[in-house]
Amino acid sequence: MIKKICLSIIFILACVLSLSACDTKTNQNNNSNNNNNGNNNPTTEQVCNRSFGDWVVFKQATCKEDGILTRLCSLCLEVENTTITKTENHTEVIDSEIPATCENTGLTQGKHCSVCSLVIEKQVVVPKISHTFDNNEDETCNKCDYIRDLTCNHTNTIKLPAVSEKCLETGLTEGKKCADCETILIQQTIIPAKGHTNGQWIIDKNATESESGSKHQVCSVCNETIKTETIPANYNTDYTKYDEPESSDFARWDGSKVVKGTNTTTEEIKWIQSAINYLIANHNLNTPYLVVDGSFGPKCKTTTLAFQKAYGLTADGSFGPICVQKMKEILGIASDFTQKNILQVNAKSSDNYISGDWYSYKPNDNSKTIRDAGCGIVALVSAIYNLGGSINESQIGNSIKEVINWAYSKNYWKNEVINRNLFNKSDDNFGTKYNFTISSEIKGTSTDEKLINHIKNGGTAVAHVYGHFITIVDYKEENGVGKFLVFDPAPGGGTNWNSLNRKTSDGKAITTANGNWFTLDELKNDGGTKGRFINNEGKEISYGYENIEIDAYWLVSKA
Length: 559
Prior knowledge:
Largest sheet: 7 strands, antiparallel
Helix content: 10-25%
């Protein structure tokens, strides 16, 4: 408090002295004019060289408001202020737990910020607890004044419904009570809240060379804002204002100087720098921001390495045509999804599909090949590859072989049947190596918000349809209609899949080489649609089961 009072007095004195200085300067100017009129030499105006002291906190920053730093020139007493960006750290206050009793509901412990009142952990109502009695003959509860009816045989019961847990809200198990005497027969228990799941970053305001920006992160489950951050000035994220690299030239830092092609321009390097800043701000690329100055130095090499590792490229620190192409895909500059579906195994045209020796690979010298079964294995590796894990195009064949052998040895794939434990068990064996995690099986359909939000926020998924597995890798909306980008492994070899008349050139896969976009309704399992297939004569045949209607899925995320 004393410091604030002193600073305030200094600030007022500085203002007065500044005004006096202005008067003095004015008088000097007037005298100068008079002297000039009299042909006398003008007086020389004195300029302060500035000798500022240390910055002092004038106002502390909180989670709600910016703070102020101030410093004083010891020569002219000029005061200079600067802003302290508001902190992300909330001042947590515990909201005390209120135990439930026989007569009253309770509350779980919660938390809120005492500065901005943000609810950090919501208090949830706890149901009344059941009455207790010392023995079977007692009529009065030993916790309250409730008197029970000893003649009640509890034949008329009411189900106490379960409540699903949410990110910040606890849930309840299912319970049961007697409708006549209200005795709790099965006590409901609390299911802990899940907590938020980190989702994508959204830029609210781009930073420029002179002005800071801001971004916020949403929960991938409930879509609530869970974190906000400032994007510092000088770290521009607007790549559209600079020239996109189009030539085959590249830029890199060799440890002592910038090495770049003869046609690489400063504007192109600025595009690279601001595009990387965009990924840091909006796609959680874990590397420091770059100053957009058109100079490709050691920091640019560091961020380029981080970019290459994050998206499965060769990590050499050189930002060349492959990096440019991948960056454009991520930024949505390409008109459509351009990554080849290298995992559609029974295609006949090498122009549309990439095949390899794993196509006819036999696990552990077994007579069966990947062509005869294993769509779940191919769908899983496809999901990891499209997720941008540590599998790249050259490693696909060996990765599939590795998973095939492991799945076969564990009986997860044998005799043309996929054991669904293949997916969540693969996390233990390959999650660290290939940089992914995968959820347990989730019973649901394409319109589940959990699935939609996961794909929207950069995840992929393996989904089950009738007797088959597919891979979901992207989401978009057109005219308010949501669509999934689907890849079909289709290793069945003989089945003529036809999805809503979207047949491939050889008639044996749900999607084309680069995948196909399907509306959520087209993938929804409503139990009423019959499958439609095309036979060898081109005639439509209906079967008594669903076609590509999702009934379960596994969410694949980066580790």
